[in-house]
Design a protein that fits this description.
Blueprint: H1 5-23, E1 34-41, E2 50-51, H2 53-63, E3 70-80, E4 86-95, E5 101-113, E6 116-127
Parallel strand pairs: 1-6
Antiparallel strand pairs: 1-2, 3-4, 4-5, 5-6
Length: 133
């Protein structure tokens, strides 16, 4: 499979939409960016792996005021996989209500479904030290 420019644009917008849904509190719309059985790995932050869109939405609600006020994604790089999936690597910047920020790397597996491209697996890696430390 060869990714078209349209595919690349759709996947990049998909990854960006996650931040918009989080920041607007529209967590019940996560099925627009994730497969229903998504694996969302936040173990690098000391949490359990989340399984399914409902678990992801509930985790966001439980975090409450500790959520960033702004999720910003950049530096998205897409790699086609032989099985038709796409590996996406992007950088995330979280801005908190007190003005502090944090940086993460998103490692995503993207699959084509009937409704379009969706994230089936996401691993969130905290960036804590420079140069990959």
């Amino acid at each position: 499979m060869t990714l078209t420019c349209e595919d690349r644009c759709a996947i990049t917008e998909l990854i960006a939409m996650h931040g918009h849904l989080c920041d607007s509190g529209e967590l019940d719309r996560f099925d627009e960016v994730f497969t229903t059985d998504v694996i969302y790995d936040v173990t690098d932050f000391g949490h359990e792996v989340l399984r399914g869109v409902a678990a992801c939405a509930e985790a966001g609600r439980a975090l409450g005021e500790l959520n960033p006020v702004g999720h910003h994604v950049t530096n998205t790089v897409l790699s086609e996989q032989a099985d038709g999936r796409v590996h996406a690597r992007s950088k995330g910047i979280g801005v908190y209500a007190d003005g502090t920020t944090g940086s993460v790397t998103y490692e995503d597996t993207i699959v084509r479904m009937d409704q379009g491209w969706l994230i089936s697996h996401r691993k969130v890696l905290a960036r804590r030290v420079p140069l990959g430390g």
